[in-house]
Amino acid sequence: MNDSIGAYALAETVYSAFSQSAIRWPDRPFYHVPLEAAKSYSSSPIDCTYAEADSRVVELVGVYKVAGVGLRHRVALAMENRVEFFLHYLALNSIGASIVPLNCEATSGEIAHILSDSRAILVHGLPKFRDLLLAATSQLEVRPIHAWLGEEAPQLSGISNASSAERSEAALLYTSGSTGRPKGCILANEYMLSMGRWYKSIGGVCAIEDGEERLLTPLPLFHMNALAASGMAMIMSGGCIVQLDRFHASTWWDTVRQCGATIVHYLGVMPAILLQAAPSPSDRKHNVKFGFGAGVHPKHHAAFEDRFGFPLVESWSMTEVGAGAAIIAQDPYRHVGTRCFGRPAPFMQYRIVDDNGQDVQPGIAGELWVRATGENPRAGFFIGYANEPELTEIAWAQGYFHTGDIVRMMEDESLQFVDRKKSIIRRSGENIASLEVEAVLNQLDQVRGVGVGPVDDEMRGEEVMACIELSPGHLPTSETAQVIFAAASERLSYFKVPGYIAFVVQLPLTPSQKLQRGALKELSKDLVESGHAFDLRELKRGFSGKARRESKSE
Known about the structure:
The chain is α/β, with parallel strands linked by helices. It contains 17 helices and 26 strands.
């Protein structure tokens, strides 16, 4: 452990780590929002030093305490990728409360599920989300006690001193799983601190200099990458979080140069899009040392590095795994263009197993099982799934966390991503549960049966594909596909809606009438490649743009 990491060894919470940095680097920039990301609500970029942020956090602590929020309470936050998110997060963390970040591109029904399942006592959102959040709370049998939507903080009443949150809990993040509806992953303060320590300890091409880095990320704060990885790395090194609202391809390099980014975080879709622009003499005019991310397409990996002059360092983790078994493709284990994500470090143990839980030979694909080395195999991992202790223990069967990712060991013991075992579609960094989409489509009159799975998409990694058996009286036409698409769009976040729909006579089923997921994936691929699927991706992009425009209107 180097000295800079050791300085935070005694930190027990996210806020205590932040406070140490605020004392050490009071005048260093903590947060920067470029104008491109802030222009919907500000006429200038947003800047905040560590001292300024700490002062505002202290003020918010007083507000929350007067309101009645305290230890082990959960507060849902609908604040986009704004500096206010981190300020409220730090304030709540300092009083022992936990946050439940909300994705406000979700439907009111999806948000209602999270509010109900998390048992949040308060939902705090920007005024622009008033209608969405009120629609969500109106669907709850037991509603959050109050909604704080930009006005003065409410006075909470009728709440107990204890709540559902763990004493050590920092955040409850919802992630799609193979069981359908999103599950809440309980993340402790130690989880967050471990992520920061791990990131700072990587070194090599990913070396972080204390008080010097400016990390640019377009990733959402309701995901662990931005909240736990980039956020904690900067907090624990006195660096600056440069936060975008989302990825803006047309202005990306201007923003990189203007904000002085030294590190960028990416998803696989980003290199694919950036490579489409015409080459420019300014392609290498930036200060970026490395990109940190996952999912770059093999054919784009070397091309991007050669053109823009910095490495895209592939990494692997999950919301459930955190730093407990994080892996990163450092030299000499990068293997550019192979979907390699590195060689596991000594702090973790792993197995690659077949469907019977038996270890496979090197070079053979199998499911990755992981745990931490040492007395506590769950050190650095999530605490568990909220309200789902049985699912937590199933995921930890035989003493290892079952990731659901299919990988292969290469000759030098580095690992190569192959596929996913679970019914999960990975589209532009979002995990989408096939079962959740199927549950919505099965409610439609036109649908007699449906199978949902991934198909390859060069830009987004994977796209959602629905193979549908039609009910009697409905024709397998483009018009029918668009009607189904429109109905799904009313009930699902835009990224979950099928980008392809194909009508089939019969779905591939087992003798017990269960979907054969492997056969469905092959069928979907064949239908898309042969042109027998309706391509609705343009409609999906239009729906995405409409949702964003509506969410940005105050």
